[in-house]
Amino acid sequence: xxxxxxxxxxxxxxxxxxxxxxxxxxxxxxxxxxxxxxxxxxxxxxxxxxxxxxxxxxxxxxxxxxxxxxxxxxxxxxxxxxxxxxxxxxxxxxxxxxxxxxxxxxxxxxxxxxxxxxxxxxxxxxxxxxxxxxxxxxxxxxxxxxxxxxxxxxxxxxxxxxxxxxxxxxxxxxxxxxxxxxxxxxxxxxxxxxxxxxxxxxxxxxxxxxxxxxxxxxxxxxxxxxxxxxxxxxx
Amino acid sequence: xxxxxxxxxxxxxxxxxxxxxxxxxxxxxxxxxxxxxxxxxxxxxxxxxxxxxxxxxxxxxxxxxxxxxxxxxxxxxxxxxxxxxxxxxxxxxxxxxxxxxxxxxxxxxxxxxxxxxxxxxxxxxxxxxxxxxxxxxxxxxxxxxxxxxxxxxxxxxxxxxxxxxxxxxxxxxxxxxxxxxxxxxxxxxxxxxxxxxxxxxxxxxxxxxxxxxxxxxxxxxxxxxxxxxxxxxxxxxxxxxxxxxxxxxxxxxxxxxxxxxxxxxxxxxxxxxxxxxxxxxxxxxxxxxxxxxxxxxxxxxxxxxxxxxxxxxxxxxxxxxxxxxxxxxxxxxxxxxxxxxxxxxxxxxxxxxxxxxxxxxxxxxxxxxxxxxxxxxxxxxxxxxxxxxxxxxxxxxxxxxxxxxxxxxxxxxxxxxxxxxxxxxxxxxxxxxxxxxxxxxxxxxxxxxxxxxxxxxxxxxxxxxxxxxxxxxxxxxxxxxxxxxxxxxxxxxxxxxxxxxxxxxxxxxxxxxxxxxxxxxxxxxxxxxxxxxxxxxxxxxxxxxxxxxxxxxxxxxxxxxxxxxxxxxxxxxxxxxxxxxxxxxxxxxxxxxxxxxxxxxxxxxxxxxxxxxxxxxxxxxxxxxxxxxxxxxxxxxxxxxxxxxxxxxxxxxxxxxxxxxxxxxxxxxxxxxxxxxxxxxxxxxxxxxxxxxxxxxxxxxxxxx
Lengths: 235, 705
Prior knowledge:
The structure holds 2 protein chains of 2 kinds.
Chain A: H1 6-39, H2 49-58, H3 74-108, H4 113-140, H5 144-170, H6 172-196, H7 205-218, H8 227-233
Helix pairs in contact in A: 2-3, 3-4, 3-5, 4-5
Chain B: E1 5-8, H1 14-37, H2 56-70, H3 73-95, H4 106-110, H5 118-132, H6 147-165, H7 167-176, E2 187-192, H8 201-229, H9 237-246, H10 253-260, H11 264-269, H12 279-286, H13 301-309, H14 314-326, H15 334-361, H16 364-379, H17 396-403, H18 412-417, H19 420-427, H20 435-445, E3 451-459, E4 471-480, H21 506-509, E5 517-520, E6 526-528, E7 554-560, E8 565-573, E9 592-600, E10 606-616, E11 624-632, H22 635-644, H23 655-662, H24 674-683, H25 686-697
Parallel strand pairs in B: 1-2
Antiparallel strand pairs in B: 3-4, 4-9, 5-6, 7-8, 7-10, 10-11
Transmembrane segments (chain B): 12-34, 73-94, 203-225
Pfam family, one (chain B): DnaJ
Domain J (chain B): 105-177
């Protein structure tokens, strides 16, 4: 039989042990770190205020000393649920528009992997949220689940439109003032022109200068025939 | 005969090995280092201006600091190490005596000439045996001789004699160069023997472990995590992620600036006590009423609200500094002024990421906003402010005075298009520019590269009309006409044409540069035109406040105005084919420039009206917007036209025919009668006959006849 020289085998065995140990510790540490990272990812959306309001209305604790919790009117709960659905619509629109952009950017390497992880998590959360809202709606009024998001969508669209409208209308005051001023100035110039004859020529440029940028911008393409004509001109 | 490997015992070989190896590494690194130390911007033309803003020193210092950052210390160290190793090994090679084994020559051993006859050889041999035979000769101690050496010498002598006289041994000598036959040879590894000698084994193993167990994983790891850390556009991945979250569908330039402040780069630039220091001071300054704007920083009320919503910290300070930079607000503090000029290049690098994100969404407004943000950052002009601020010495008050009471801002072009006397009367005066300042502003304005589009059209190379899904080329022809240029020559109509390369001109089709043949000399050799000039770069952006050298880019893209969506993603142009400025670098040449962009035509026939945007990312107000119409013809109609024109129709089984079928075109018509063809030829106009001529010469592409 062979007599095995154990001492000389110590080196190769220790090599295997060290190698295996190094690889294993690397993989466990790496995985733990990854898991911790993805657990600490910032949520895509901030806290869902409307949902919180709805849930706290639903689970109102009885006040101290009182036996029963205060009775919440049905209409208030419904309104809270509708508000929650409106907020969900806003979020779902964001997710829908962002999805294609996010995936194409991820493919190109323009955004990071963790953004995509956050995004897909938010997407899943939204699905759950929608299902929950439909169920709640059905519980409050049978059959409401089918229509709640339709009305929520209309409300959301309307608020957005309103916001834009308000923004535009907020400018009216300053615009009005400017035009008043401008009209007064032009009137003054006009009057002085009428009074003084040729004198106010030096004053005129300020009026002319306003129109000029527009003019120059338009004549930029010195020959701008429409494209079909160009096609004929070619070749 | 042994072929065992031995190590380099005399130390004659390994220096060569090490010298070559270190040379292979050091020489390219030295080149890289040399390239890095030179200023890459030095090769670019510049806009000549003597204008120095008040903080010019700070801007220059920041610019220099950035340039120095690129020079890596480790590279210098590595190159020095490499050169010293090379020098040392060179020294070793020079010093080590080379043991050249002399060629065994029987004539030399016997001490006779090679022309000696056999008789002479014999007599010499006899004479030598008489004196040098070990039995006869006595070892001479003074010559350091022993019995052995005498023996060896005599053996050599007799070998030499035999090699010259004995037939067999002579054959050996001729074949192998030695009377004993084939000599043993050895292969030596060019590594010093010391490496494998017993005591050093563990050091070698240690070195190997360090190299392959530590250094290699480290290098691979840094490379891999380095690529993960940065997005494709350059900014940190984390910044790109944050910018993605900041994206809004109707974002404006101010919104983009606010979004950019989320960048992680700012956190690194404004570390420690820099994160908050002086924030209240900056804010009070930028929010103070400005000369012409509600706030000195040039921000709108919405931007101000956004700024105030941010918790204090690096982000808020970065945003405040950005507004201070854009509004050219004096911060009255050296450290703050320095950071003010440092944040702008960072923000500009982030705009690239934001552009990529808005391109992925495809809405026109954010794309334009991100390009405009880049312009404003480079020129230090707040959003919605007058583009005249780009000119030296112009302040918001002066720009306001020039613009009068107008609501729309005046671009540099429209200011410069006015006659000199008129713009002088507007800009020069008390509280306005002095005569010298006005002159310096006008000289700069007259050098700014304003690209004026002359014509833009679509074409398909080698085709007469555009069929669905074909590869369309958008050709933009235009000239660089600096604002206020006088005596601009009229456009030569011929230059507006885009002539296709001939079908057999492979060089042009493949984009290779070719010398143009001018004619032939007497000997019949073709004479070529002088080498066409290399690509021409526009001058570096005139941006006295921007602490980087930046070469301007032009982006051309098509948008759908009805949907507010991008139709064709931007093509970026940084170089041009014709010189922009004359020899002196100031006078424009007004040469026609061509920009081409290829994209796939829509799959349905019809008239498509796009808005073509030509945006320069360096100068405010130099953008061009114009409508272009893409006419896509039905494939069958196009084929008919092609048939009439007698351009070779793709054969059913040819590659072009298959392509045509794949595009949904009808199968090529069956062979027509020859006389019918002749008829159609007669009807053709003169220009089309030229086309026919070319197709006739390429008869091999003709389907039949």
